[in-house]
Every structure is written in C-alpha cells, then in structure tokens.
Amino acid sequence: MFEAVTIRPQYRYSQDPIDIGFLFECLLFYRRVYVQGNHIVLEQLVKYFGPELLMELMSSGTMEILYEEDHLAIHSSTDQSGFAIHNPVTFSAPHRALPEQLRSTLINYYDRAGKGRRAAIRMQPFIKTVRYDATLLDGVKASFRDKDFVEQAVRSLLFRWVPEVPPTHRFRFSCEETEKGFVVSTDLDFAVLNEFFHRRISKDRTVLTPAHLLSTLSDAESHAFVSARQLSEIATDEVGSDLLKLRLYHLFNRTQKSERARNDFSEVIFGEARSLREAINAGTIPMPDLIRLIKKADKFKSWLEKQSMDRDLMREYYKEVARETFLDRLPPKSMRFGIFTGAGFAVDALFPTGLATTAALGLGLFDSFLLDKFTRGWRPNQFIEGELQPVFKKNP
After folding, report:
1. Of 202, 294, 307, 348, which is the most buried if we count CB atoms within 10 A?
2. Is the pLDDT of residue 125 over 60?
3. Residue partners of 226: CB distance under 8 A and separation at least 6
4. DSSP for 193-218?
5. Whole-number Å distance between alpha carbons of 116 and 106
6. What residues contact residue 117 under an 8 Å CB cut-off, 6+ apart?
C-alpha cells in the first residue's frame, strides 16, 4: 500500500478544482501522487505552488501531473419522437494540447514570453498526457447496459445526494440501448429530487438530471481506468468509493458467480490523524512548513510501502512524521481507507495461467483491461475524502 495514488478534481465547476488540503494529505502518505486534471487544474497548481516548487516536486517523483488532452462526457440530444438520447463520447480541443496550454499558462504566470516558454520546455517532460481510447468507452457502455448495476448505482447516488429518499424506496431507472444511443427509462420525479438536492448543492453549479447521473457513472469509470493504468490506488470521495466498489462487485460476480465478491472491500478508520486538510484550506499553514513536512515524511514512507494496512504501523508512522512539527498541534480527526482484500482470490482462482479465458467469459475490453491490471499488481485501495470539518476559519 501507499506506493502511489491518483487524485482527481473535487470541485468540477470551480476555478480551483483540486482540494489542495486533500492533495497534501495524499502527499503525506503516498510515495507518488498522480494529479489528474485539465487546463484549469494545471493553472491552479502552477499558481499555488509556483513553477519552481512544482518542478521540484515533479522531478523528485513526489508528484506527477496527468494532463487530460482527452475528455469524457455524456452527449445528450432529442430524437424526432422527443426521447432524450445519451451517448458517452470522448473529445479534445487542439488549443488545449499540453505544449500550447503549458506554454500559455507559464507565460501568463511570469508575464514574460521568453521566461514562460523556457519554463514550459523544462516542465513538459515531467507531465504525462491522458488519452482515452475505445477501451474506456466500451466500459462505460457496458456499465450502462448492466441494468442491475445502473439501478444500484443510481440508488447509491441518491443515498448520498438526496438522503430524503428512503433507502427502501422503489423506483425504476434503466438504460435502453438503441441505434442512436441510450434512452433512460425512469419514474423518478426530478423536480422533487432537485428541491432536496439544491438544499446542499447550488442550482448554479448543477442540476440533477438523468444525464448528470450517467455522467457521474462514467466519471467513476474513467477514474478507475486512469488509476489502473498507473497501477495506483485511488483518492476519492464517498460517492466515487461507492461506485467503484459496486462496479468491481458486478465484475467479479459475473466472473466468479459468487456472492463472496461483496466482501472484497473492507473499511479501515485511522482515528489518530490531524486536521491537516482543514488547516491548509483555511490558509493557516505557510508553504515552507508544508514542504518541510512532506520532505520529512518521505524519509519514513518506506515503513508503509509493501505492507498491508496495519493501524499500529500507521500510528507509529504518523507519530514520527508529526513529531516536533505544526502537525502535532492540529486538532485530531479520523481518516478512512477502503482496502481491497479479495484480489488474490479473484485473480488467482480465475486466471492461474493468464487472461486467455476472458473471451470465454464474455468480458468486454474494459473488464479485460481491469483484470489484466490485477494480474500486474493493481489493487484498487482507496483513500476516502470526508466532509470538511468546521475546525478553522479561513483567513480574509
């Protein structure tokens, strides 16, 4: 555990989409942190860290940017009969390609064309581009076709977003595939759902619709895709954690034909952490102190690598890192980790001699891709972000 983790934007509609406090909590535990995002994320990181410090973090292998040149979305249209048609699509914008965007970002930062171009040349080798191929689209479409998965996934989303809906409430939500795309069949009353939804999420940010639900499912699919490709663990929120567990349960249930797949994840609560994320987001910790903390943590990360989750080991690691630093003076809090425990059973039992039998099992490109990554050592452990605690007041 704790060798690498992939973090994605928490605030999709913000000019600061990455939760910097959560990013530093990832940096505290993991040897390498992959930050996945678009041009807005790139601009945020350059602005927050500054080009020189960002280069230092990337050149040391502590952090790596996975820059999205391709994007995944749900394209919705209306056919002649008035039905809404939804299709997962990938797209790119030439002016957002990494060389052009990085150069533009750094020129704007320095306000000097020559210096910005030279900085871009130095930084670009440390940034990977994210491209989506047919494998990901195959996975999204396959998940939409799985009626049990879709209904359970939507129920999971409503549980998190609209808790006023009773867990036992019966409803219909399924995707019917046509020649033109997917048509959603549902009896959910979205007007009523949005009345509750917008008590927590501003209507200026987003509206709960069938397309929004499908987009959330596809986002979870892409997070798994990128993390598996990097053989990294996953930093996510409760919604993403729920969807990943459900997605893998359905995959292993199809291949193993066993309810044991439900027990492949366990949750570990580490109750002796400190409120680092909250303090950073409140602006109370100077950058030099943060960098000293991360460099100190690097000396002890070998304690956690190559080891299974061990609370005693984590306690000693955290205690040693926090000793004689500002971290030791912060308020206490708990952290949550989702640990994948069933990988040995799932992979070794199914594929003792490789993945030649995936076709016989009727697996698509994406499911075969995931299982291949399991044989290469990928384990979808999760660092689960919780809600911010009102411990600190943000500096004016």
Report:
1. 294
2. yes
3. 6, 34, 36, 66, 130
4. HHHHHTTTS-TTT----HHHHHHHHH
5. 5
6. 103, 106, 107
DSSP secondary structure letters along 10-42: S-TTSSS-S-HHHHHHHHHH-SEEEEEE-HHHH
Mean pLDDT across the chain, nearest whole number? 88
Q: What is the pTM of this model?
A: 0.89
- Longest alpha-carbon distance in the chain: 68
Residue 395 has pLDDT above 70, yes or no: no
pLDDT band at 211, cuts 50/70/90?
very high
- Residue type for 326, please? F
- C-alpha torsion angle, residues 13, 14, 15, 16 (rounded to 10): -130
pLDDT tens, 252-270? 877 765 555 556 778 889 9
Provide the 8-state DSSP code for 236. E
Say how many residues make up the chain.
Answer: 396
Mean pLDDT calculated for residue range 67-85: 93
Give dist(CA 41, CA 51) in Å, integer.
14
